[in-house]
From TrEMBL:
Pfam family, one: DAGK_cat
Region (Disordered): 1-26
InterPro entries the UniProt entry points to: ATP-NAD_kinase_N (IPR017438), Diacylglycerol_kinase_cat_dom (IPR001206), DUF7493 (IPR055916), Lipid_Phosphate_FormReg (IPR050187), NAD/diacylglycerol_kinase_sf (IPR016064)
SUPFAM superfamilies: NAD kinase/diacylglycerol kinase-like
Domain of life: Eukaryota
Protein name: DAGKc domain-containing protein
Domain DAGKc: 135-274
Amino acid sequence: MATSTISGTDPFADPTRMSENSEYAEGDTLPVGRDASLTLATDSLIVLDEDFTRRETRNCCGLLPSKAKTTQAIPFFNVLWAELSNFDIIIQYAKTTSKNVVRVASVNYLVEKPQQGYAKVWITKLLDRAYGESQRKKRIKVLINPFSGRGGAQKWFLRDIEPIFVAARCEINVERTLYQGHAVELAEKIDTVAYDVIASCSGDGLPHEVFNGLGKKRNAAKALSQVAVVQLPCGTGNAMSWNSFGTDSCSIAALCIVKGLRTPLDLISITQGNSRTLSFLSQSVGVVAEVDLGTEHIRWMGSARFTYGFLVRVIRKTVYPCDLAVKIDIPTKGAIKEAYWNEFSNHAPIEERRGSFDIETPGLPELQYGTINSPLPSDFTPIPSNKLGNFYAGNMALMAPSANFFPAALPSDGQLDCVTVDGDISRTSAIQSFLAVEDGSWFNMPHVNYQKVSGYRITPKGQKTGYISIDGERFPFEEFQAEVHRGLGTVLTRSGHMYEAQGVVPRTGQGS
Ligand SMILES: Nc1ncnc2c1ncn2[C@@H]1O[C@H](COP(=O)(O)OP(=O)(O)OP(=O)(O)O)[C@@H](O)[C@H]1O
């Protein structure tokens, strides 16, 4: 969580003294109550209160009340709202009550009549610092999957999420999904002018449906650019929340949505048979798909089922032969690393982070590479994949907590991070790469082929049945083609342009 810092100074130092030393510009401190002040510091609001009741000192004549200063630093990020009501200034904020929980709390002081005009100006300044570029009073359509997270989503919404949205003066409209695919229908019908955000209290399945519902609208590209799709982490994986907000805490994610910055997100058209589906997270064929979708029968193991499923297949040296052809955009790890760190310091405006498709054109953008039924595009390069163990393409970095599969992934670079690993590598190498996923260092392993691509076609061979996973959902085991649309979708993130994952490391030096 954001913590209070006043760069170069002690956050708990007496701010009134600091103002004497001109640390704060004139007008940053508002005197309130009998003997208190509110000061806008560098990153936090400092509440300084002289409390007569809390401490007593002893002198020669006995116990005497004395002033005890209490100082509280509230990070601006956590400030939800502030207003003047009659003679009171009320500041509501998200108070950190444990490592993974914030709860609405408030600071309330009397403001004398002569100070009221000044207090209004001060509140404007506070809200400017609290929200920065982020939109205030967001209008949020909340979808709750009552079956997510072992049935906890409804409870978590009421306890952890709603109070934060209400305190931040967000307008909310809540609807529960009633059956599989309901979120597709709801998103397809939603009035995109009436909402800024669609927030799913769910796993990653509902955001996938919401993107696809918006994608079915007559004005799909416009709708996808208007409404931000976010997740309130109520599922088991919650990859979207980890990448956007760096958390799987519902209350912290709610705060991050209140303060989130609109961020264009690449979406991927998957064509298979005669269908076209949007993917926002990942596609896999081979060991990851099988471990993800083919271990349901050992769900009782909890998350250990993934480790177990992986090890069984590695020991057997399972291969998943395919025909694979990719449209390579960045071929080497060195160039990928450079592109990643260039983006780190790039603060280009949102309009420059989307492809050149015309958002007034009806439906989804035209496919540059055709569909799976078109001839293979001439600029797709065949990759030998007779011994493929794993094909994994990612649009976000973290696929689960501690699973930084795609450390170089960026929200709107117009590219997928495409990884292939042969199935016949040594068991030691396979296990080492499995262990190196946690911190993303598997990127640097020589047997991990990592490229940035804007499209690909994959055709499974030599297997009648198997697993294809798109955003964690099982798709028919048959060939498909993928094409990236730069910045077609919109999400909210903390940074406005990066994921909350450790990027590709080391920062300097070239990979292979
Ligand atoms: N009321 C409902 N009854 C049955 N299925 C539902 C209902 N509401 C939503 N669903 C379906 O539940 C599926 C899972 O949704 P969710 O977003 O929670 O993703 P998940 O990643 O599978 O969840 P988890 O992480 O808990 O496994 C989606 O396919 C969705 O259509």
